[in-house]
Design a protein that fits this description.
Layout: E1 2-8, H1 18-23, E2 34-38, H2 41-51, E3 61-67, H3 94-106, E4 111-115, E5 123-128, E6 138-143, H4 149-152
Antiparallel strand pairs: 1-3, 2-5, 3-6, 4-5
Amino acid sequence: MEVYRLSKLKYAKSKSGIGAAIEGGRWNSKGTEVLYVSIHPALALLELLRRQTAKQIPSSTCIVQYSIPDKYLSTNIVSVKALPEGWDEPHHITETKKIGDDFVRSEDSVIMAVPSVIIPSQRNFIINTNHKDLEHIKIVDIMEKGINFNLLFDPAVKL
């Protein structure tokens, strides 16, 4: 399966989760290293626009495409029904951070599928960057011109 992440170009070749560990996120606490990827580059962009305005996105942002072997995709799936109330609130709740932190600590799988906050029927994935199987997740493309920044920065477009 192909998945996508938006990244500053200078970090595109890295499979480190240090960026997510700096502030933490919906599925990880500060200090827990993970990569957030999406099932489609447009969903990755929507997730980014949820956290910052189009003008805050650096023009050096690129799309990183990863290939994940199918055998890793069916082992750890979080369903919307299993999540606590408020999981999709703008501010990240402790319960979802704990789900991600427990996933990383367990080392059961290199990847966890989670619902998108924006479109819950779609999937994002959390990659455990310290897992022994990380080497099987390959970067297959870095699309430096993958986002039309002219459209994003057009004052007539309200994002």
